[in-house]
Amino acid sequence: MNIAFIGMAAALGLSAAGSAFGAGFAGMASVGAWKKCYASGKAAPFIMIAFSGAPLTQTIYGFLLMNFIKSAVAGGADAGLALGVGLFGGLAIGLSGLFQGKCAAAAADALGATGKGTANYFIVVGIVETVALFTLVFSLLLLG
């Protein structure tokens, strides 16, 4: 067995796990915020759907990283490097998804309570997203 395959699996699996946790946290908070809105007779902001789904992009980044690892190994890249990039890159991307979900959960709660600050909340969620993007790009540079 080629250890590069472990790196490929880790890139996708760890990224997707972070997305799952993040989307779960954000989704639960959105449902709770909507419940508070309904209970108090306020309009429930539909935009919270975007908070709930924001961490899903990390799964896409993990898939891309997996494919870039595959291509790099086919082009002669070291299998140990591929393993390390997959493990640590996938972990970093996954953690970005997890914490993006936590930020989105706080954003949903705040938006539900105040009805204000949507743009600010998306900026914070986007900053956490940037960690995953940087990880993907820097991982590609390592493989290249």
UniProtKB/TrEMBL annotation:
GO molecular function: hydrolase activity; proton transmembrane transporter activity
Coiled coil, from the record: none
Listed InterPro entries: ATPase_proteolipid_c-like_dom (IPR002379), F/V-ATP_Csub_sf (IPR035921)
Transmembrane segments: 46-69, 81-99, 119-143
EC number assigned by the record: 3.6.3.14
Leading EC class: hydrolase
Keyword Transmembrane: yes
Primary localization: membrane
GO cellular component: proton-transporting two-sector ATPase complex, proton-transporting domain
Signal peptide bounds: 1-22
Pfam families: ATP-synt_C
Topology within the bilayer: Multi-pass membrane protein
Domain V-ATPase proteolipid subunit C-like residues, every copy: 83-142
Compartment annotation: Membrane
Key words of the record: Hydrolase, Membrane, Signal, Transmembrane, Transmembrane helix
Domain of life: Bacteria
Protein name: ATP synthase subunit K
Lineage: Bacteria, Bacillati, Bacillota, Clostridia, Eubacteriales
